UniProtKB/TrEMBL annotation:
The gene is SRGAP3. Residues 359-386 form a coiled coil. The keyword Nucleotide-binding does not apply. Residues 19-314 form the F-BAR domain. This is SLIT-ROBO Rho GTPase-activating protein 3 isoform X3. InterPro entries: AH/BAR_dom_sf, F_BAR_dom, FCH_dom, SLIT-ROBO_RhoGAP. SUPFAM superfamilies: BAR/IMD domain-like. The keyword Coiled coil applies. Keywords: Coiled coil.
Length: 498
């Protein structure tokens, strides 16, 4: 009955652990689905915008009635198939809001100009196509890093499972050795009681050596079992310490991923999207602002929406919509085995020296890693600033194309020789993608470094707390001034370093 209870206990612990890991796996899968859906939604939005401006460029040569038909075409498309989803599920994200206002403004258009046709076909649509390429490329790169982060999380949980099983095994062996030791002690007691009942003088001469041999065998067996029990108990203590340290590291890694890394990963997916889309809309605005003054009121509304294109706000909206897959899971709890009441790292001898050495090693390693990772972070920030400068360049002013003294050929020539010329595009695109590759490599390096620091810091802090408590307990039981002074020198000198 006891064996069955033990098996059931171990099975329940493993089942709880596997259920928790399964839940995390499910969340990780759903996170990618959510990000992929967001990427597809953006691509669909960009595709609609490209189609819209292509048709608008063709219709710009017609009268206001044609423009009204165009606006109504896309408005009815939204009302019939997507408006409800945008309003309910996406809470009208800032890019979608701009799209709504563009349609509203289109209804107010009353004239067509050849210049608008040229700008829409050779500027706006090209930009939207580039943004679509950027969305696909950035999502692919972000997914690669995300998969690596997921593998690291699962690796950490697997390591936790291994040390937990090792701890359970050694604890079971310790219990078994303790049971055998108690059995040997009972046999020894029984033998001595038996020897006391039979006087040695009453034994025959040939039976006395046999009696002494039996006593020695029992004593020898007890010594062996005592040694085995001490050995198993030490192994159990070390295994429990490793389990608790890995438990702290695992919880720290999981918490960091859900609180920080997921947000950073979404930022990578969003890298440049809102800024590039804002530039596209501002190009459109620059063209529209040169039309009649009567259109300015509607265009001011659109500009305000473009000013409010906010990657951070949209990110929070997406995370709020999918709160269940982005919220951190419950922390892993220590699972005691077979009634083991020790749930903290043990800093008593004979493992105290080992833990102290381990603490110093962690302290030294953390100091080096933090310096290295800080340098990587500075490089990452500088690269991000470079990217932001590239993505926020004010290249959307096309007022020069509306000088009425110029001929049609002059207007086309001016438009083609400006920012959107093929030579400038190729050069900028190459610089941007090269900078992106460097940024992602540094972002990956920074993530790896910060993940390692998080895990080591968790172990360091737990060891620091444990060793500090062990010091206070030892000082309370030792009254010698010399010993107390030596301990203060050891611990004060180490624990003051962060």
């Amino acid at each position: 009955m006891s064996a069955q209870g033990k098996f059931k206990k171990d099975k329940e612990i493993i089942a709880d652990y596997e259920a928790q890991v399964k839940e995390i796996r499910t969340q990780l899968v759903e996170q990618f689905k959510c990000l992929e859906q967001q990427s597809e939604s953006r691509l669909q939005l960009l595709q609609d915008l490209q189609e819209f401006f292509r048709r608008k460029a063709e219709i710009e040569l017609e009268y206001s009635r044609s423009l009204e038909k165009l606006a109504e075409r896309f408005s009815s498309k939204i009302r019939s198939s997507r408006e409800h989803q945008f309003k309910k599920d996406q809470h009208l994200l800032s890019p979608v809001n701009c799209w709504y206002l563009v349609l509203t403004q289109t209804r107010r258009e009353s004239r067509d100009h050849a210049t608008l046709n040229d700008i829409f076909m050779n500027n706006v649509i090209v930009r939207l196509s580039q943004i679509s390429e950027d969305v696909i490329r950035l999502f692919k790169k972000s997914k690669e890093i995300g998969l690596q982060m997921h593998e690291e999380l699962l690796k950490v949980t697997n390591e936790l499972y291994t040390v937990m099983k090792t701890y359970h095994m050694y604890h079971a062996e310790s219990i078994s050795a303790e049971s055998k030791l108690k059995e040997a002690e009972k046999q020894e007691e029984k033998q001595f009681n038996k020897s006391g009942d039979i006087s040695v003088n009453l034994l025959r001469h040939e039976d006395r050596p046999q009696r002494r041999s039996s006593v020695k065998k029992i004593e020898k067996m007890k010594e062996k079992r005592q040694a085995k029990y001490s050995e198993n108990k030490l192994k159990c203590t070390k295994a429990r310490n490793d389990y608790l340290l890995n438990l702290a590291a695992t919880n720290a890694a999981v918490s960091k991923y859900y609180i920080h890394d997921v947000s950073d990963l979404i930022d990578c997916c969003d890298l440049g999207f809102h800024a590039s889309l804002a530039r596209t809309f501002r190009t459109y605005l620059s063209a529209e602002y040169n039309l009649e003054t009567s259109r300015h009121e509607g265009l001011d509304i659109i500009e305000n929406a473009v000013d409010n294109l906010d990657a951070r706000s949209d990110k929070h909206t997406i995370m709020d919509m999918c709160n269940q897959v982005f919220c951190p899971p419950l922390k892993f709890e220590f699972q005691p085995h077979m009634g083991d009441e020790v749930c903290q790292v043990s800093a008593q001898q004979p493992v105290q020296t080992e833990l102290l050495m381990r603490y110093h090693q962690l302290q030294s390693r953390l100091a080096t890693l933090k310096i290295e990772n800080e340098e990587v972070r500075k490089t990452l920030d500088a690269t991000m600033q470079t990217l932001q400068d590239m993505l926020t360049v004010e290249d959307f002013d096309v007022s020069d194309a509306f000088q009425h003294s110029r001929s049609t050929e002059s207007v086309k020539s001016a438009a083609s020789e400006t920012y959107m010329s093929k030579i400038n595009i190729a050069k900028r695109r190459a610089n941007q993608q090269e900078t992106e590759m460097f940024y992602f490599s540094k972002f990956k390096e920074y993530l790896n470094g910060s993940n390692l620091i998080t895990k080591l810091q968790a172990k360091h802090d737990l060891l620091k707390q444990t060793l500090g408590e062990g010091e206070r307990a030892e000082c309370g039981t030792t009254r010698g001034r010399r010993n107390a002074r030596m301990r203060n020198q050891v611990f004060t000198g180490c624990l003051s370093v962060r």
